[in-house]
Amino acid sequence: SASKGNGTTLNGQPIHVSTTPELGQSLVASGFPYDKWTSEENNGREWVALMRQTRGIRRLGSAALDLCYVAAGRFDAYWEQKLHSWDLMAGALCVLEAGGKITDYEGVNATQAFRSGRLVATNGRVHDALLQALQTARAAMPLT
Does residue 99 belong to any structural domain of this protein? Predict the structure, then answer.
């Protein structure tokens, strides 16, 4: 659980984001939007690029759970697009209160991520590298 200014706990014990320093050492998570079969904005190009730049990617199917795993240090980072407030708000609070960082895909603050539905959540240490990898992937494989 988490509350603003009081940290994040799991079974009553404080938890914190991981200390993994580099993207190449990171275990990350993501997902695919509801319209993955009909939209070119389906996270495919980002997924392929990050497979090569991280230790691995996991897809649990729940943005809230993925974010809580970042908060607990089980994942080092998470990114996804086309999220709704009910997908991300509780988990995002857990990440922030556990010492993590949240922005949108362009590196703008958490509020913008909540508005756009394009969220990047990390332990803070790998944040800039993940943002760069996402931007590079999107530029290297432009939509048709």
Answer: yes
Decide if 50 contacts 101 (C-beta within 8 A): no
Asked whether the predicted pLDDT for residue 68 surpasses 90, the reply is yes
More confident residue, 141 or 28: 28
Contact (CB, 8 A) for 89 and 3: no
The answer to whether residue 7 sits within a structural domain is no
Distance of alpha carbon 20 from the chain centroid: 15
- In the chain, % helix, strand, coil (3-state, to 5) comes to 40, 15, 45
Q: Which H/E stretch holds residue 14?
A: strand 13-15
Token reading at 22: 């580099």
Domain span at 28? 24-140
Q: Which CATH number do you get for residue 134?
A: 3.40.190.80
Can you give the pLDDT at residue 34? 72
Half-sphere exposure in the Cβ direction for 22 (13 Å, CA)? 4
- Is 13 contained in some domain? no
Q: What's the number of domains the chain is made of?
A: 1
In angstroms, the CA 112 to CA 23 distance is 23
